[in-house]
Design brief:
7-stranded parallel sheet, two-stranded antiparallel sheet, 9 strands, 34% helix, binds zinc ion
Length: 272
């Protein structure tokens, strides 16, 4: 059983719906031993909601986290993380930001390409789905080459959630040239990928990324895999973890990873 949820948003994220303490209580109730909070920090993006729409107030977030960690120390291990939106124009910001706080874990995610989030249909306008997916994976590859200040790449095929036919026409082969280079770059740089169980919640039948990507990452020698529900409210904590566990086992993983003080700690997937 997977007992660590390492991708969680509370009301410290603009789109988070549950207070940190409510999330913690629910996590304990669900039998988790580890929770790592990863609020949004998307710097330098001109969101419709405003340029700082997805930037957490890190100072207050950290203070609150420390209080909670102490209060619940006998019940659960809490870790301090962040989900950084990666775009090539913010290397300076990221370099300073990650040094400013004692993060346990940093997820690097591509939420926008050329300033547009694939969440918005504008991303797919004037492009075939294949072109749009290719563009997204190329952007991830560019970020994987530029940035080192992160531990795992978050939901590596996030774009599949929002494409006109989602994953229906996705095959690894179609994008294999870029995806292979992405996986190899991450592995060479000692970075992992995330197994984001929200794919099941979105009815995709697999975690993000697709099991073909997970399998290939493993084949190429990738070992660092963290698991997160990407819950934005308490009820979604550890969502579909049993399915994520099954998928990882099928893809050849025997361990999953939890980051503490930016160092990977390996936990056995006990099914094996
Ligand atoms: Zn994300
Ligand atoms: Zn997230």
């Amino acid at each position: 059983m997977i007992t660590a949820d390492c991708h969680l948003h509370t009301t410290f994220s603009t789109d988070g719906e549950s207070a940190p303490e409510d999330m913690i209580k629910k996590g304990i109730e669900k039998g988790l031993t580890v929770m790592c909070f990863t609020e949004h920090m998307d710097y330098g993006v001109d969101y419709e909601e405003g340029p700082d729409a997805f930037q957490t107030d890190t100072e207050t977030y950290y203070t609150t986290f420390c209080n909670m960690k102490e209060k619940y120390s006998g019940n659960i291990n809490l870790f301090f993380g962040i989900e950084l939106g990666l775009t090539p124009s913010i290397t300076e910001f990221i370099r300073h930001y990650v040094k400013k706080y004692p993060f346990d874990f940093i997820i690097g995610s591509s939420h926008t390409v050329g300033g547009i989030d694939p969440y918005y249909s504008a991303f797919f306008e004037g492009r075939t789905e294949e072109e749009a997916y290719r563009l997204y994976f190329e952007a991830e590859l560019a970020c994987a080459k530029i940035f080192t200040d992160f531990d795992v790449y978050g939901h590596p095929d996030y774009v599949l959630r929002y494409g006109p036919s989602q994953n229906k026409n996705f095959t690894y082969q179609k994008y294999g040239d870029i995806l292979d280079e992405l996986m190899k770059t991450l592995i060479q740089n000692g970075k992992g990928i995330e197994c984001n169980s929200s794919g099941f919640k979105f009815g995709m039948g697999h975690p993000l990324p697709h099991t073909d990507i997970l399998k290939r990452y493993r084949e190429l020698g990738g070992e660092i895999i963290t698991i997160g529900s990407d819950a934005h409210k308490a009820e979604h904590i550890a969502h579909s973890f049993h399915l994520a566990e099954e998928a990882l086992t099928r893809c050849g993983f025997r361990y999953y990873t939890v980051f503490e003080n930016r160092k990977p700690v390996f936990y056995p997937i006990q099914n094996n």
